[in-house]
Structure formats: C-alpha cells, structure tokens
Please model this.
Amino acid sequence: MKRTHLLTAVAAVLALAACGKGGDKADPNAPISAKPVAPPAGGDWSKTISATPDGGFQMGNPNASVKLIEYGSLTRMACRRS
Model:
C-alpha cells in the first residue's frame, strides 16, 4: 500500500473516531487523547505479524481499539504495483 493511501486511510479513521456518540452533549473543543501502549519486548508493533482465522495477516497490536483493514489483489494491476 502506498504511503499516501495509508495516511489517507488513517486520517479517515481518526476523523470518524472523533465524531463520538455524545450527540449534542459532546464538547467539540475537548481534546482527543489516546493512551500510548508500550511496544512488545525488543521491537515495535510494525514487526508483530500473525495469521488470522480468515486466512489473512494482522500487523500491529492485536488489542488495538481501532483496526485498519487493507484489501488487495495481485491480479488487479493497481494493487500489484503498490
């Protein structure tokens, strides 16, 4: 996946997460914060990869509250070039 695609996807996820479910009671000026999670011993989350029951692969913290799913196909020219 190209870096620009990844950054766009992350920005979209963060924008949706910022919407919240507070309705009119939510303070639009309240800061959005996330608790940092310590990386695994001797590495970082980008090096943590595991197989999923669906036959795919998961990279990163398996307990993350936000997950990004990337779909691709090596038979599609645009996906193959990425």
Q: What stands out?
A: The radius of gyration is 16 Å. The helical segments are 3-19, 77-81. Residues 3-19 form the longest helix (17 residues).
